[in-house]
Amino acid sequence: LAVLVAPLRLLKWRSTAWRAHDGVTFWLVRWLLFRLMFASGVVKLTSRCPTWWGLTALTYHYETQCIPTPGAWFAHQLPVWFQKFSVVATYVIEIAVPLLFFAPIRRLRLFAFYSQVLLQVLIILTGNYNFFNMLTIVLAFSLLDEEHVGRWLGRSKRRHASSESLAWPPSLRAILSTLLELSTYGFLLYWSVQCFGLEIDWEKRLLDSKVAFTYHEFTTWLRAVTLPLVGLAFLSLSWEILSAMYRCACVRGCFWKLWATLQWAVFATATVGMFAISLVPFTYIDYESNGKLWPGIHQMFNAVERFQVVNSYGLFRRMTGVGGRPEVVLEGSYDKQTWT
């Protein structure tokens, strides 16, 4: 993906800081992030691991992972009800929130970005997985836009403030956008409460949670949403391609317009090809949906499979160390009777 996202510097005298097709190739990074997070959440339930289904995975995780950090000790001391709620939050961030990666509303994508970064930072604080979590955060930057990053760097604040002062009364589009955003948050909260039986016990001052659906219900839901998710991704990609084509038409100068259009055609074709072959490993989460893909897509994937251009994902499918963490014990004795 970095090959496609990196600037194409064939014409040295022309600035390549921005290209009309950047949104198309950058979309593939967002699609990779979606496949990584969504599949990682799904496999925890399709594996039938009792700790993930019982929401007790984190009561084992902090002390049985490979290399705990000092922060893992403190996390392990947290009460059981909080550990179970943390598992629920993990499901929400990995299964539900990734759907917002393709939301047309900018603030929903920013909410999804900060949710993913929060999860990765918490993992970094409680476990050592080398640069893996850093790479995931890098992928999450595909959810941002130039204006938001500009705020981090102290740019565009004055322009943004002046535009806000002129934006009153709010337009119908802004009102509908806000209502849709609030409705999404409300539905996300309602879905979480219903699916995980969230209930506050005021007497014990804790939050009860449990998986309120069966394995059959989950697999039925997964089968129902897998192909529609492919359709959602295709619509999102189509929008990016059409938007890039419009940006090519807006480039000044006949030669540069033609050059931008040529680049758009090449990179859009490569992006569609990458997206098509990625559908095969993505639909491994539901083999019935995998079998419904167009045979040509399977043929394309089989032709390049040996290069591992695209892959399937599924992190922490089963919680390790549930039966206890193996420890090496060295004993010595002076009298062969008392061992220390």
From TrEMBL:
Which segments cross the bilayer? 85-105, 117-144, 221-242, 262-285
The record's subcellular location field reads:
Endoplasmic reticulum membrane
**Top-rank lineage group of the source organism:** Eukaryota
**Residue intervals of the Lipase maturation factor 1/2 N-terminal domain:** 1-149
Chief place of localization: endoplasmic reticulum
GO terms (BP aspect): protein maturation
Q: Which UniProt keywords apply?
A: Endoplasmic reticulum, Membrane, Transmembrane, Transmembrane helix
Q: Name one GO cellular component term.
A: endoplasmic reticulum membrane
- Report the membrane topology from the UniProt record: Multi-pass membrane protein
Instruction: Please tell me whether the keyword tRNA-binding is annotated for this protein.
Output: no
- PANTHER family given in the database record: LIPASE MATURATION FACTOR, LIPASE MATURATION FACTOR 2
Q: What does this protein do?
A: Involved in the maturation of specific proteins in the endoplasmic reticulum.
What family does this belong to?
Belongs to the lipase maturation factor family.
Name of protein: Lipase maturation factor
Organism lineage:
Eukaryota, Metazoa, Chordata, Craniata, Vertebrata
Gene coding for it? LMF2
